[in-house]
Amino acid sequence: MKTIGMIGGMSWESSKIYYQHINEMVRERLGGSHSAASILSSVDFEEIERHSFSDNWEVIGTIMAEHAKKLEAAGAAVIILCTNTIHLVSDAITQATSIPFLHIAQVTGAAIQERGLKKIALLGTKFTMENDFYTKKLEDDFGLEVLIPDAGDREILQSIIYDELVKGTFTEKSKNICLGIIEKMKGLGAEGAILGCTELPILIPDSEASIPTFDTTKIHAKKAVDFALS
Predict the structure, then answer these.
(1) What's CA 183's distance to the chain center, in Å?
(2) CA distance 59 to 42
(3) Is 72 a residue whose pLDDT tops 90?
(4) Catalytic residue positions?
(5) Are 181 and 156 in contact (CB under 8 A)?
(6) What is the pLDDT of residue 56?
(7) CB of 122 within 8 A of CB of 185?
């Protein structure tokens, strides 16, 4: 079994789900008392959040590169970044290390392609929805048409994520708001919805949306386990 290196803490609410998924998947495949060989390097999210809102992405890239180098030095065979938004600086990781990096948009795009969908909604932070680091990969590598919510709904999602989800608050009201946004996107032709913030799948169960949803945390974790057991 290869060792999975995880950069976590963004937020730790979703990082613990990554850890859970990865270990459960290893046990399911290998049986017995098996669990994953893994290393977690976790950041102080307050610092990352502050730099994000100040548009200091170069600083965030430097922080991510340092954590990635720690993982490689500790023996990780692959690196995953346990967040969607911070993939905005994924190049800093790939340039700082020599081991494989599993990009969350790449593995999500492959999962959507496997389902045969062509038009997909993307929900996440404003950074994820409004920058092209995510949508461009989906469009260029998988030929998907990506729809994002309107400006008002992007603000609502941003507020729910940063004021509630990353702080461990998951309410029925916010779930219903997000389901309403998904319904709007369905009305615009979306055949499925990417839950493109690693906390969103905690808020929105698979079965509650009227179109297929793509749990990026679970998809990402599965690909990490595929690599570790290959």
Answers:
(1) 22
(2) 16
(3) yes
(4) 83, 197
(5) yes
(6) 97
(7) no
